[in-house]
């Protein structure tokens, strides 16, 4: 019995070619086997978006699964390996020390006027928005009303998600060793009548955020790649999840090097 490996890829031509090469390389190894069900290691081929969908496919088994990303486009935040490094990758799996690194996830509980509260996990972020008109939301931190927000919306991100949507709305980039979530505003209204903090805030791991909405209005909630568009949402609660995502740490890349590579320059 070998290491049980699941493979998830996107539909790009390059990813399909990488998939075929990876299958050939894995077939040569007695201690590595490709499986359809219950993998211990999930290899994604594509981009960060591919890793996000793999995460959601296996989010009910996070204790048993480790992830590893091969990128076929630009270098990603969840994808460490380049397509031409496949032989080296497969070799490192064979000598597998079983080590992994883990990162925080966001726990989301959505309460509506009908039915039981729904529970989700996000790897990048969750956002709350409203169609064309101003969104009004009461933001509680723990039990205390912190602010009444008016504006386009709010984004709540994990440290590894801080370089995604959060960064586009002016949030800080957060090192993934920090066990915290970030609340960022999307175009808040600030004038003599309406007041919000006006800057992103970093919320600790033992705290929670509760965003209360007007249930008679339609809101758009995103959880990574998932969209929920409906009326009747009364509250969305966020905290750092008990679960974490584990990455196979066959190789380590310096986080700030990756940030530089993605946003500043390649050298
Ligand atoms: P997408 O529209 O294909 O992705 C948007 C871009 O975000 C892609 O370049 C993607 O990289 C990149 N990305 C994803 N996770 C990232 C991370 N943790 N750090 C830095 N960049 C990241 O959609 P997708 O690939 O399914 O990814 C969904 C994510 O896209 C959402 O969670 C959200 O964070 C992000 N997004 C950002 C904006 C924005 O910045 N205005 C708007 C919509 C969505 P790959 O090309 O490697 O997949
Ligand atoms: Mn993508």
Automatic annotation (TrEMBL):
NAD(+) binds at residues 48-49, 124-125, 150, 152, 163-168, 187. It is found in: Cytoplasm. GO terms for molecular function: ATP binding; metal ion binding; NAD binding; NAD+ kinase activity. The active site is at 48 (proton acceptor). It comes from the Bacteria. It catalyses: NAD(+) + ATP = ADP + NADP(+) + H(+). Keywords: ATP-binding, Cytoplasm, Kinase, NAD, NADP, Nucleotide-binding, Transferase. One of its GO terms (biological process) is NAD+ metabolic process. The keyword Transferase applies. Its main location: cytoplasm. Pfam families: NAD_kinase (PF01513), NAD_kinase_C (PF20143). Its EC number is 2.7.1.23. Involved in the regulation of the intracellular balance of NAD and NADP, and is a key enzyme in the biosynthesis of NADP. Catalyzes specifically the phosphorylation on 2'-hydroxyl of the adenosine moiety of NAD to yield NADP. HAMAP family: NAD_kinase (MF_00361). PANTHER family: NAD KINASE. This is NAD kinase. It comes from Enterococcus malodoratus ATCC 43197.
